[in-house]
Amino acid sequence: MFHFKNSGISKGENVIVDCVGFNSFVTFFRNTKNHNVHNDFLCVLRASFVSLVFQKIFAFRQLSILSALFFLPFFSFSQTLTSPDKKIEFSLHTFTQNGQLSYAIRFNGMPVIELSPLGIVVNEFPLGKAAERGTTSFYKENETYPFRGVHNRAVNRYNGMKANFTSRYHPFTIEARVFNDGVAFRYIIDRKDSAIINEEHTTFILPASTILWSQNNIKYYEGRYTKKLIDTIKAGELIGPPITIELPNTAGYAAITEGGLTDFGGMSLKSLGNRQLQANLSGVTRKYGVIETPWRIIQIGKDLNTLVNCDIIANVSPTYDKKLFPKGYATDWIKPGRSVWSWLAKTRSVTLENMKRFSDLASQLGFEYNLVDEGWGRWKDSVNGRDHWDMMKELVDYSASKGVKIWVWKAYPNRAGIPGIFEESARKLFFQKCKEIGVVGLKIDFFDSENQEIINFYQAALRDAAQYQLMINFHGANKPTGETRSFPNEMTREAIRGMENRPPWAQSNTVLPFTRYLAGHADYTPIHFGDRAGEVSWSHHVASAVVFTSPLLCYGADPQSILDHPAKEMIQSIPPVWDETIVLPQSKIGELVLYARRKGNVWFLAAMNGVHEPKAITVDFSFLKAGNYALSIMKDDREKQAAAQFEASTVNAKSNITINLNPEGGFIGRFTKTN
Q1: Which of 206, 262, 346, 578 lies most in the core, judged by the most C-beta atoms within 10 Å?
Q2: How many helices and strands, by DSSP H and E, does the chain display?
Q3: In Å, how far are 213, 515, 525, 537, 543 from 532, measured between CA atoms?
Q4: d(CA 22, CA 78)
Q5: Reported pTM
Q6: Are 173 and 244 in contact (CB under 8 A)?
């Protein structure tokens, strides 16, 4: 076995060597503690005219350096695709020895995904093994389009390729797109008959010492994100994307998830140990004809601002049907807005009279909606012979007189003796009835899976809802995967550990913007001033409503507590959608969130402290345009968390501020243009 002098590699440690290019190997040694290696080993490398990247494991087994040299895996095919700015490199390879198809991703010359196997099992045949190169074609795109999320216009710029392969089982294609902020790839299998996708072997081998932020709920995605070293994750652990990666040596950030998920089982991740994560499909996927898998996405950036503003998930998702959405996100009946909600309120009962009261409160707050949760389906007025539909119509009409519109809750499965809407006929009948009485939106709950049947329900429900001009909020659901690009009437979805859970909040609130929210909007139901307030300050609570993206911004707080609160005016001014988002460089996952967000000419600056110690941060206002702004501030009271201080001043782009945050504290600043 070859040994390395002071290289940072243990003398007895088995290492596998993969050929990816001579410069990659040289880069590896430049990043070790000492550049000294045996000269004869370098001679062998030069003679073979390949360079070697070290990994502890590859697809087959661990090998020593010596055995790796005896069985040197030359590539029979290699193809590289780079991003438009040349900083991200995606490479495809097949091995001469066994035809195993593999890929690697690099950012600024450093590995993001080390050489990793590709493959998918169709009708029990593993595509990706014994692969032989066919033709490869290239294409590119450079466009922008209207969007709704962290900003109002998405950027879709990439270099793409379709690499065709033959195998002893079936021909297939790897389609890849490399953007300036990541990579997306998928499998295409051109079939004319039925097929079962049993499993997927796409693997993500991460560099040693990579920090991983992940959660383990793969049914309804409400796990708490935790921080781990990839080297410590044991085989068999399950992970629900998105996962966020802090690359070694401050090389940047990455995140793994999927996009364009339609008519397919959703993808979670399963650890194989040894720094390997593998795609883990939910259930069995059944297809007929051409198979196009969802896109496997690796978002990549030098900073957190790049990840948060990444549009790849939307870019690879089908665009909306103009017949259903003639104006896209501006379609007349699609209205982002703020909602009151009784579920976590002090007076939470879902009765007709209490819901009228909540509509009154929504009107007083200037909120657009009242969300009526589980319980209204049992309403009954036996004296006057009225059922729940008649009584809901009364609520809708009463609320309309107050300028408030109604959303209603409904279970996907049968629940508590009330039929669900999992069948098409029941779904359409329910939607039709909601439309007839004037309901504008539906909160559909209890999916608890991302198998193909559930994914297909999302698509069908969103399409049917559009025909009845209804907006949708999915709860008990899986991660978003670009549905809002295809169906602008999806206003939010859960798949998050939000206010329905219990404190502590602080660290989780400073992790979620850089993990779960990378996939898209989430119904966290922010802010609470009652028994769920937890350890965080009032200012932290209000800042969360600025940071957490949800075009249906449903508040967890009792609306009366907002009306009675000194922060009422600040909360009322927070918009449900944003034109621009900037993650300021002081932000750090799990410790500090610092956002600047714009709606029209109004900017908000929001900070949340995730740790149990005070912080002082200085922020310049260079994100502002020219001119003066009236700045309204809500900041921590140093004496207690359940209090706040309010200030006003005039500032401009050359101004700055030092923000003093309590432990688990927060800050909100609103900048309104004055000239």
Answers
A1: 206
A2: 14, 38
A3: 25, 23, 12, 12, 16
A4: 14
A5: 0.90
A6: no
